[in-house]
Amino acid sequence: MRKLSAVVSVAALASFTACGDGGGGGGNSASAIQASCSGPSFCDDVEGLSSQDLAIASSTCGAQGYAWASSACPGAGRVGTCVRDLPPSATGMSATFVLVQRIYDMALADAVNICASLGGTWTPG
Fold first, then answer.
1. The pLDDT of residue 31
2. Residue 62: pLDDT over 70
3. Going edge to edge, which strands form the sheet with 121-124?
4. pLDDT at position 49, please?
5. By the 8 A CB rule, do 19 and 99 touch?
6. Is residue 25 exposed (0-12), middle (13-18) or buried (19+ Cβ within 10 Å)?
7. Mean pLDDT for the stretch of residues 79-96
8. Cβ neighbours of 9 (radius 10 Å)
9. Three-state SS string across the chain, please?
10. Closest listed residue to residue 120, CA positions, set 103, 105, 95, 104
11. What value does the mean pLDDT take over residues 27-34?
């Protein structure tokens, strides 16, 4: 059951929260983490968003029943991070962003497989 809820959570949240500029950190590389959105087994750091896009991210996070915070995702207990580009059509935001999703409390193999199935790049730890 926990595995299923984690898979659903990762897929559901990937629909909106993002950071950067879609270019691997190019244009917004100096930006600081503005907020985070977390649910069971994941937390997304949010950075480099305009105020309008930040409002979209916050609203979507809450509407999906996840927790919005004005701080970065915790480092403790992290299995790894899945990074992938999300176009505006997937987020409702004004530009393509890089989704930085931190994964917790999940078997490493499951997390790696989910990340790969979403077209992401996995980094352990």
1. 60
2. yes
3. 67-69, 33-39, 42-47, 97-104, 78-86, 121-124
4. 86
5. yes
6. middle
7. 87
8. 22
9. CHHHHHHHHHHHHCCCCCECCCCCCCCCCCCCEEEEEEECCEEEEEECCCHHHHHHHHHHHHHCCCEEECCCCCCCCEEEEEEEEECHHHHCCCCCEEEEEEEECCCHHHHHHHHHHCCCEEEEC
10. 103
11. 59
Query: Six-digit token pair at 125?
Result: 């730890």
Q: Is the pLDDT of residue 87 over 60?
A: yes
User: Would you kindly state where each structural domain of the chain is located, as residue ranges?
Assistant: 2-124
User: Higher-confidence residue: 13 or 119?
Assistant: 119
The total number of residues shown for the chain amounts to 125
The single-letter code of the amino acid at 69 is: A
pTM confidence score: 0.71
The answer to whether the beta carbons of residues 86 and 47 sit under 8 Å apart is: no
